[in-house]
Amino acid sequence: MKKMMFAVALVAAFTFASCGSKSQSAKPAADSTAVSDSAAAGASAQVSPETSKMLGTLTAQVSQAIGAKNPKALTTALADMAATYKTLVNAGKLDEAKAYGEHVKVFVNKKAASLKSVAATAGNTTINDLVTSIMNLPTTAETTADEAKAAVTSDVVNLASPYIQKGAEAAATAETAADVLKNAPEAAATAAKTAASNAAATAENTAKTAVNNAATAAKSAAEAKVNEGKAAVNKAATDAQSKAAKKVTDAQKKANDAVNSAANKALKGIGL
């Protein structure tokens, strides 16, 4: 009896293990190209507070450029985002670069529709190229430093802000790259303030120019009206003078004709 119960238990255990194996094999394979929020969340532990701050600055810049529909600012922000990945690698922080890469992929993937919209409206293919470059950043465990550096080309680096270019250049030393990463958030904030200040100054100058142009146009129009009025008065005076002169001439002609007629009659009267 005990042997029979043991056999039944053994078969049941085997059957359960077999079902569990089938259940696991039935799970769909993960898409190796997909970027998920969980992947970024898992990578966040590997990102230093310094890099996290820079990431926040870069994502804010991209979002602001999208909101303003500014293709030039968006191009620079995306290039900064890609160049920061290479700067991390140059600084010897390969694992952190991979984690950072996961974050930016998630962000860019979420903003894909807006990015395409700005690019299409502006006819700017560079934005699409930068998006592709970011989505292709290698982030797997097998990625080497050389492969990571090669993923961000010099063309992309040249589109980035000057303070990021220094750390992402091919010849950048680990010390230079680390220094760039340390100062980048402050430099980015300063650049943003400068850009905002320049934009405000440009807007103010544009407004002043518009006001001045409007005032000049109004003055010119008023002067033209005055000149038209003067011309009309002068023409009227000239016409009146001409008419008066003609009347005088006509009167003189009539008087002369009358005198000549009377003289002729007188001469005829005396037989001449």
Write the layout of secondary structure elements.
Layout: H1 2-25, H2 37-43, H3 49-68, H4 71-90, H5 94-110, H6 112-122, H7 125-135, H8 145-150, H9 154-159, H10 162-168, H11 174-269
Helix pairs in contact: 2-5, 3-4, 3-5, 3-11, 4-5, 4-7, 4-10, 4-11, 6-7, 10-11
In brief, what are we looking at here?
The protein is mostly helical and 272 residues long. It contains 11 helices and no strands.
Plain-language structure description:
The model is unreliable at 1-45 and 198-203 (pLDDT under 50). The chain has 272 residues and is mainly α. The termini are far apart. It is built from eleven helices and no strands.
Key phrases:
disordered N terminus, mainly alpha, 11 helices, 272 residues
Kindly state the number of beta strands.
0
Number of helices: 11
Element-by-element helix/strand order: HHHHHHHHHHH
Largest sheet features: none
Mean pLDDT: 77
| Helix/strand structural class | mainly alpha
Approximately how much beta-strand content do the residues carry? under 5%
* Low confidence ranges: 1-45, 198-203
Question: Level of helix content?
Answer: over 70%
Q: How many angstroms does the end-to-end distance come to?
A: 184 Å
Work out the radius of gyration.
44 Å
- What general form does the structure show? rod-shaped
